[in-house]
C-alpha cells in the first residue's frame, strides 16, 4: 500500500501535513493581546504542526515527560480488540500521528480553567427510580446471539491463571 | 422517464414534475418554486435590492411538508400518489447514489399511505406530518427494520424499540422510507467509513456527500424523501448539508431526546434535521424536540412553534432583518479555506447586509484549539461507549471457547479500521495517569470555547461561518490521511463543544462537477434559540435569488 511506504514508523510525520490545506489554518492562529488566555506558551503548539517536528519539540508541562507513546498491543488488550499484524503496522503510524497532534494541548496555559463535562444542561431531569415493564421482551431476547432459555450463553468466564 | 421532459424546459411544471403518473395530473406546487437555470456554472450572486418588489409566494411554496399537506387535504393529490412519486424516484436514483442501507418494503409504505387516504376520505383528523416521507440515519433505532449504525457488528440487528425522535415522527403521521448510510457509528466525514457501501454526492457522483450523515443529506438532495434525521457529534449534519446543497439543523445540546441514538460521544451527540428548506427543518425539529423521561440530558424547556417564524415572502418588509447583529468569525474565512467557499460566504454576508443586518467581524482566538480538544473528547468517550458492543447481548458474535477471546474476536471482526483506531486512541487518552493530560485538558479547552462563544453571542445575535473549508471532494481523496480528514471539521466541532444550535443552508456554488458544487452557510445561535436561526435562515433563503439547489441529475432527469 502506498500509504505504508510513505508513512514508515521511522518517519511518521513526513506525511500528510502539507497535503491538507485546511491544516494550514492552524498556522494562522492569531491572538489578540487582550485575549485572557494568550501567553507565550499558548502559541507554542501551532508551529510544530507545520514544521513536521512533533517528536523533537520540548514541553514545559511537567505532565508531558511521563507520557509514553501509544503501545498498540497493550491498548488493544485494554480495549478488547484483537489486532492482526497488518493492522498494527497500518494503525501504529496513524495513531501516533494523531496522539502527537493531541499533544499540542499540553502547551496551552489552562491554569485555573474549570473543566466542562458537557454543555450546560439545566435542572434535574432525572426520572423517578421506579421499575417499568418493557413490553417487547421477545425482541430483546431474539437479538441475543447465543441463548438457551432462560440464560444468555457465554464461554467459560474463569481463566486458568 | 425524465428524458422527454428536458425538451420542454420552458415549462417548469413539465420539467420538474416527478414521474409518468404525476405528470398527467396537477403538478405539485412546491417543485415549481425551484427556478430553472441552465447556466449552472458561475452563477452570479443576485442580491435582492431593497427597492425591488419581493416575489409573491404563499407559505406553502416554502415548505414541501406544508405544500404536500395542502395537496392532501384539498384532495388534489392522494397520499398514495405522493408516496409513489417518492418511491419511483428512489428506485431510479438509488443505484447511482446509494443513500440507503435499508429501504422499507414498498407495500408496507403504500399501506401506510392508504390509511392516510382512508382517513382523509372519512373526514378524520390526520397528523401534522401525515404522509411525510422521512429517511432515518441508521444509527437511530427503528423497531421494525434493521439498525446497524453502518457497522458489521450490528449487521442484521433489529432493535426492540423506536428511538424517541422516530416514535414522535411516526405518531404525527410520518412514513419511514428507510435507513440511511453513514460512517460507522458516525465516525467520519465522508460516509466512506460505512461497513456496507459508499454513498455518492448527487451533485457529482465521483464526490463524497460528506459525513457522517451522508446518506441522510444525499437522500434529501436527491428528493428521495421529504426530510431526514441525522446525528451531529462534530458536524455530521452540517458538513453533509453543505456538501449536498440542503438545509441542515443541529439543535442545542439537550433539545432533542437521544433515546435510541447509538451513543458515540455523549457530551456532544445530538440528533439533527435535514430538509430542502429551512421551514421543513424547523417543522421537523418541532416534531422531535422536547423533554423525554428516557433521556436525562433532554431539556424541559418548552419548544416554540417554529412555523410562526415562516412569514411569506410577500409580507416581508424591504429590510426584514433591520438591526440584526451578525458576527462573521474571522478565523473561519482565513487562510486554509477554499477561495470559492470564502467568496460564497462573503456573498452571503453581503446579502444579509442588504436585508438590514449589521455585520461585524468577530475573532474567536481559541477556535483552532477546538479541533484537537474535540478529537480527544470524542475518541475517549467512544472508547467507553462502544464497549457495549461485546457480541454477547446483541450483534454479531465470534465463536470462541473463552470469554475474553470472544469479546476480542467479535470486536475485531465487527468494527472497521476507523472505529478501531478511535477506540484505541481513546483508550490511550483515558489510560491511568493520562487523564489530566488529555481528557481533562480537552474539557478545560471546552470551557474556554464556551466562554468565547458566549461573549461573541452577547454582542451579536448570530455568528456566521462556512460549514466546511471546502466543497465536496473526491471519493478516496482523504481516506488514508486521518489528520487531513479531521481538519475538515474545523468549522463545526467548536459548536458541539459549546452545545450551541446551528443552521446550515445553501448560499452559493463553487466550480466543480458538471454544474458547480453547493456551499453552505453556517449560522450559529445562542443556546435554545433555534427560533432565531430558523427565522433568519428562512428570510435569507426566501430572498436569495438566482440559485437552484436541486441537483441537475434530479431537476433535468438524467436518470430517465
UniProtKB/TrEMBL annotation, chain A:
EC number: 6.3.5.-
Cellular component per GO, a single term: chloroplast
SUPFAM superfamilies (alphabetical): Glu-tRNAGln amidotransferase C subunit
Catalysed conversion reaction: L-glutamyl-tRNA(Gln) + L-glutamine + ATP + H2O = L-glutaminyl-tRNA(Gln) + L-glutamate + ADP + phosphate + H(+)
Location(s) in or outside the cell: Mitochondrion; Plastid, Chloroplast
Free-text function comment from the UniProt entry: Allows the formation of correctly charged Gln-tRNA(Gln) through the transamidation of misacylated Glu-tRNA(Gln) in chloroplasts and mitochondria. The reaction takes place in the presence of glutamine and ATP through an activated gamma-phospho-Glu-tRNA(Gln).
Family: Belongs to the GatC family.
Oligomeric form and interacting partners: Subunit of the heterotrimeric GatCAB amidotransferase (AdT) complex, composed of A, B and C subunits.
Name the record gives this protein: Glutamyl-tRNA(Gln) amidotransferase subunit C, chloroplastic/mitochondrial
UniProtKB/TrEMBL annotation, chain B:
Alphabetized SUPFAM superfamilies for the sequence: Amidase signature (AS) enzymes (SSF75304)
Gene3D superfamilies: Amidase signature (AS) domain (3.90.1300.10)
Catalysed reactions listed for this entry: L-glutamyl-tRNA(Gln) + L-glutamine + ATP + H2O = L-glutaminyl-tRNA(Gln) + L-glutamate + ADP + phosphate + H(+)
Keyword Repeat among UniProt keywords: no
Annotated keywords: ATP-binding, Chloroplast, Ligase, Mitochondrion, Nucleotide-binding, Plastid, Protein biosynthesis
Active site: 137, 212, 236
Domain Amidase: 81-533
A cellular component term, taken from the record's GO annotations: mitochondrion
GO biological process terms on file: glutaminyl-tRNAGln biosynthesis via transamidation; mitochondrial translation
First-tier enzyme category under EC: ligase
Function according to Swiss-Prot or TrEMBL: Allows the formation of correctly charged Gln-tRNA(Gln) through the transamidation of misacylated Glu-tRNA(Gln) in chloroplasts and mitochondria. The reaction takes place in the presence of glutamine and ATP through an activated gamma-phospho-Glu-tRNA(Gln).
Subunit organization: Subunit of the heterotrimeric GatCAB amidotransferase (AdT) complex, composed of A, B and C subunits.
Additional remark text: This protein may be expected to contain an N-terminal transit peptide but none has been predicted.
Family note: Belongs to the amidase family. GatA subfamily.
Protein name: Glutamyl-tRNA(Gln) amidotransferase subunit A, chloroplastic/mitochondrial
Biological source species: Hibiscus syriacus
